[in-house]
Design goal:
Elements (H helix, E strand, L loop, with lengths): L3 H27 L11 H20 L8 H6 L4 H21 L23 H32 L1
Helix pairs in contact: 1-4, 1-5, 2-4, 2-5
């Protein structure tokens, strides 16, 4: 089976990729939203991913109380520096949560249905896989957003 270090390696790659995109775009472009209905900014996607990690690993796996505003994550905007600091803090806490997890054990809570997680009962290990799933898909989405934002910047 996968080790904690293997899992964290891939999670860190996704987080590093997203943080690198946001840092590379800077304050103005990281908060830009492409002109597509419902499009998110790279900043908002990274904020959402930090919410995913904090809730799914922190609350459901580790059992900490986590207050989350999922809708607010998608509306968030601001300077990239503090968001990148949050990536560092969330990553460190995730490593602790992964190392303390009991993969076959039940979750320490029930995710709200509107959080759009898997539609079956999950173990702690499955919740951690969901965290990776979210990070990987949003990393790819953010790469496309970056390309669109930069193309519009160069065209305009």
């Amino acid at each position: 089976m996968i080790t904690d270090d293997d899992y964290l390696y891939y999670v860190d790659r996704a987080l590093d990729g997203m943080a690198g995109i946001v840092a590379g775009l800077g304050d103005r472009l990281a908060n830009a939203r492409p002109p597509f209905p419902g499009a998110n900014s790279p900043y908002a996607l990274l904020a959402h991913c930090l919410g995913v990690v904090s809730y799914w690993a922190g609350a459901l796996v580790a059992g900490r109380e986590v207050v989350r505003d999922r809708d607010g994550e998608f509306a968030s905007a601001g300077p990239v520096g503090p968001l990148l600091d949050s990536v560092t803090a969330v990553r460190a806490r995730l490593a602790e949560d992964v190392r303390a997890a009991v993969p076959a054990a039940r979750l320490r809570g029930t995710p709200p249905a509107h959080f759009l997680g898997p539609d079956r009962e999950l173990t702690q290990g499955a919740a951690l896989l969901h965290v990776y799933e979210e990070l990987a898909q949003h990393h790819g989405q953010m790469e496309i957003l970056r390309d669109v934002i930069l193309a519009r910047q160069h065209a305009g």
